[in-house]
Amino acid sequence: MNIIEAKQLVHEFFRRDEEGNIEGIQVALNKVDLKVEAGQFISILGHNGSGKSTLAKHINALLTPSDGTLYVDGKDTADSNNELAIRQSAGMVFQNPDNQIIASIVEEDVGFGPENMGVPTDEIWERVERSLKSVGMWKYHAHSPNKLSGGQKQRVAIAGVMAMEPKCIILDEPTAMLDPDGRKEVIKVAHELNRKKGMTVILITHYMEEVVGSDYVYVMDKGKVVMEGEPRDIFSRVDELKSHRMDVPQITLLAHELKKSGLDIPDGILTREELINVLNLG
Amino acid sequence: MFREITIGQYYPAESRLHRLDPRVKLFGTLIYLISIFIANDIWGFLFLTVMLGVVIGLSKVPFSYMVKGLKGIVTLLIIAGVFNLFMTPGQTLAQLGPLTISDVGLKNAVLMTARMIFLIIGTSIMTLTTTPNQLTDGLEISLAPLTLINVPVHEIALMMSIALRFIPILVEETDKIMKAQMARGADFESGGIVKKAKAMVPLLVPLFVSAFRRASDLALAMEARCYHGGEGRTKMKPLRYEEYDKRAYVWIVLYLLVLIVIRVVF
Ligand SMILES: Nc1ncnc2c1ncn2[C@@H]1O[C@H](COP(=O)(O)OP(=O)(O)O)[C@@H](O)[C@H]1O
Ligand SMILES: [Mg+2]
Question: Where does A36-64+72-232 sit in CATH, by number?
Answer without folding.
Answer: 3.40.50.300
